[in-house]
Amino acid sequence: MSDGHGSTPDTPPGWASNQPPPYGDVQGSPWAAPGPGPDAPSPSQPPPPYGSQGAPPYQGPPHAPHGQPQYGGQPQHGPQYGPQYGPQYGQPPYGHRPPPTALRPGIIPLRPLGLGDIIDGSIKLIRSNPKAVLGLSAIAAALSAIPVAIGQALVLGRLGQSLESGEDPIAGSAQTDYVGQYAGPFTSYAVQFVVVTLLSGVLTRILGRAVFGGKITAGEAWRLTRGRVPTLFGVVALEALIVVIPIGIVFGLIYLVALASSDGATVGVLALLATLAVIAYAAFLTTRLVLAAPAAVLERTGVLASLSRSWQLTRGSFWRAFGILLLTGIIASLVAMVISLPFTFAGAFAGIFGQGGTRAQIIAAVLIAIGGTIGSMITFPFQAGVSGLLYADRRMRAEAFDLVLQTAAIEQQRQGWVHASADDLWTPSATPGGSGQPGQPGQGAPWSGH
């Protein structure tokens, strides 16, 4: 029973007078005790808090008034009442604390990547080293855009001549139309096969250093990549053969069926099914082999080993890789179209209304080439960065490669710079448990996890 003075028979004397409301006495309250009891200790020796042995009373946070409770502070009514009511205000509940922030020395966090990390890392690849990335991409884009621009300028010039003379624009010169519509794109594809292959290899080497926050010049990137050029060409050529030859056989059979059959509906259905099958086949192989070029450059493997490595890394992750490649391809196409569209319109206007003159065709070709170059200059490194970061993500997920990268990044931060030997980390012999041989990449490489 309470005696009306804020204490019970089981509580020590003077306890209530030292406690904040509602347990203590409020100053000026009519229910306050008139004075200390006969058993109260002297003011020079305040009693210890309830449940402690000689410890000074809890004073609360520095910014809180004396004796006033504060959200997030320690309970002031005895230790037996606090912890059982759960965490204090402002503190995350047990088991729901946010995960620690991943180490991010360069363009990506050193952990398995999400879609946003891959897209953001590809953009940061361009921004982190714009001279080397955009300079090399501009050369590749210009070489691939010029043949298409010339072909389109010839077609536009022919169209302008037909409109000026009142002729049927469709019944023009078959030779000019062939050069403009077919020779230009075919030449562009052939040029792209060479320059884009080289570009992807060089950009992959730049990306391998940018993951750690290091920069590399275009000359150094080419010096480190030129030894892998034959392998890159072999990888791309073998991929093209694997995709193109079965497609050619399928459409050849459809053509023979069309010649031997008089039922156009059946041939049309077969052609539609064959087209869908060819698209699915090409998408499947392109996705499973997309990591071959990064593996050839960073892991320094041969042609067949690079293709096998890509097939192994994409096992069990086909749909995720396909979705990322499809989305980034759509983004790259839209960006290139938006950038090149004004130049294409200007070139078309100059070619059509220039009455087919040589000067008008040159102006049209230059404008179209500028638009195509600027668009491809941005999209080429973006797509190459997506492929390289997808390769890094698959190694992190399948091989716990992020632990190797984190160890290397910590050592680099301690030293204050990114050493060129960080390139050796991408070789399989540099990973924990690898079997690097003397004289081979990865043997004795720092931060290798050995």
Low-confidence blocks of residues: 1-12, 19-34, 66-87, 171-176, 433-450
Overall mean confidence score, pLDDT: 74
What is the count of β-strands?
A: 0
Q: Summarize the biggest pleated sheet.
A: none
Helix content: 55-70%
- Fraction of residues in β-strands: under 5%
Structure description:
There is one protein chain. By secondary structure, this protein is mainly α. It is built from 11 helices and no strands. The chain has helices spanning 115-128, 130-165, 174-210, 218-225, 229-260, 264-288, 292-298, 303-313, 318-352, 358-399, 401-415. The protein is globular. The two termini are 71 Å apart. Residues 1-105, 428-450 are annotated as: Disordered. It comes from Streptosporangium carneum.
Itemize the secondary structure elements and their pairings.
Layout: H1 115-128, H2 130-165, H3 174-210, H4 218-225, H5 229-260, H6 264-288, H7 292-298, H8 303-313, H9 318-352, H10 358-399, H11 401-415
Helix pairs in contact: 1-10, 2-3, 2-9, 2-10, 3-4, 3-5, 3-7, 3-10, 5-6, 5-7, 5-8, 6-9, 7-8, 9-10
